[in-house]
Amino acid sequence: MNDILLNWQKKANDHQKTYKQFLKQVNRNKALKLLPNLHEQAFEKIDCLECAACCKNYSPRFKTPDIKRIARVLKLKEGHFIDTYLQLDEDGDYVLKSRPCPFLGADNFCSIYEHRPSDCHRFPYTDEDVLLKRPAITLKNSNFCPAVYFVLEKLMVVVK
Known about the structure:
Helices cover about 60% and strands about 5% of the residues. The chain is mainly alpha-helical.
């Protein structure tokens, strides 16, 4: 494992104030240009199938197109899919009722991977502006996703 990822969870927790300050002041244009490359570097070192912390601890939002698509794939009526798997959160978004995700297998493979919600497809947002625009989510994600930690650490070195 790369040295940057050694004890990453403790370091991510210790760096929360630093990340918060960095995300407030970072040159967004410069950072946005670097994100795709840093994202690629992160996933050259990190295998999501070894972790799956996102699927074990986090629920994506299920938007209407996601619900329609997944219900069709599972051969369920949309209402039955919602009743079985989803609930409304405090923001009025559909999220999973249970953790870990019911579609996550013991091998950390997703049984609906090709049809997963758009939030899952985009997660951990390390190659897009969400990383900078939504610092609260970035800070939360840095505590359980090594890719977010990796990208933040690299970004802080490159963008001053």
